[in-house]
Design goal:
The strands form three sheets. Strands 1, 2, 3, 4, 5, 13 and 14 form a seven-stranded antiparallel beta sheet that branches. This protein has a five-stranded antiparallel beta sheet with strand order 6-7-8-9-12. The chain has a two-stranded antiparallel sheet with strand order 10-11. Helices cover 25% and strands 43% of the residues. It has 238 residues and is of the alpha+beta class. The protein has helices spanning 2-39, 56-62, 118-121, 128-131, 186-192; strands at 48-52, 64-72, 75-78, 83-98, 105-116, 146-150, 156-160, 163-173, 176-180, 183-184, 197-198, 202-205, 214-221, 224-237. The chain is built from five helices and 14 strands.
């Protein structure tokens, strides 16, 4: 009986040691992965990395991680000319294959979300002088841009300074975001010296998206435009 008790205690201690070693190893790997994501240019700042699944060491042996979660706030994205903040970025990466020398990694499937504030979005839109070159009645400096705000589910509002130009929609194709459907009416049309007419669609193309993912959808939210990302066979590191 005593021998059985001793064996049980020994196994419990050994299991505890192995679990502890596994957790230490995964912590080291998470820190190293965060550093590599920045060095490879896939993230504009060091993210929080969480490697899911247990045990971790068996995943290391197979050189394939079941699931990796990445989060960061205040990343930057842009259109090549302007950079804006991407808030609350969260990504889930499934099937992360690591090379033998750990210098590269690819992802079978990835998805994520992030948010750009409406104030920042205006920096990615063309100036009013390009959208309304003949609108002499509207007081708009050369740097005045169309500003966007939440217009309800699936809708956004637009304005030139204090002058509203109605509601529209926003959608994406590839990594290009387009806002359209706005129309000069009422006071805005009178001030612009133009008859009621729609504005030309405005768009921008994002580059260097985080974790090598691509834009899949945009959704208006009260605090900004939510971006959804996806990717298959994504090169994460290297």
């Amino acid at each position: 009986m005593r021998g059985w008790v001793k064996a049980t205690i020994g196994l419990a201690v050994l299991a505890g040691v192995l679990v502890g070693a596994d957790r230490v190893a995964v912590g080291v790997a998470e820190d190293e992965a965060a550093d590599q994501l920045v060095k490879s240019g896939r993230m504009s700042q060091r993210p929080d990395v969480s490697i899911e699944g247990f045990p971790f060491l068996t995943q290391v042996v197979s050189m394939k991680l079941d699931e990796v979660r990445i989060s960061a706030d205040g990343l930057t994205v842009g259109d090549g000319s302007h950079q804006v903040a991407l808030h609350s970025f969260r990504a889930k990466l499934s099937g992360v294959k690591v090379s033998d020398n750990k210098s590269s990694a690819t992802v079978d499937d990835g998805s994520g979300t992030g948010l750009i504030s409406y104030a920042d979005l205006s920096q990615l839109l063309p100036p009013a002088s390009q959208l309304l070159p003949n609108a002499t009645g509207l007081s708009m400096g050369g740097n005045t841009r169309l500003t966007l705000s939440y217009g309800g589910p699936g809708k956004i509002k637009a304005a030139f300074g204090p002058v509203p130009v109605g509601e529209g929609t926003v959608h994406s194709q590839g990594n290009t975001v387009t806002a359209e459907g706005f129309r000069l009416t009422g006071v805005a049309a009178v001030l612009a010296g133009l008859s009621s007419r729609p504005l030309e669609p405005v768009s921008f193309t994002l580059s260097s998206l985080p974790a090598g993912l691509n834009l899949s959808e945009v959704t208006p939210k009260e605090d900004g435009l939510q971006l959804s990302f996806v990717g298959k066979g994504v090169k994460l590191i290297g």
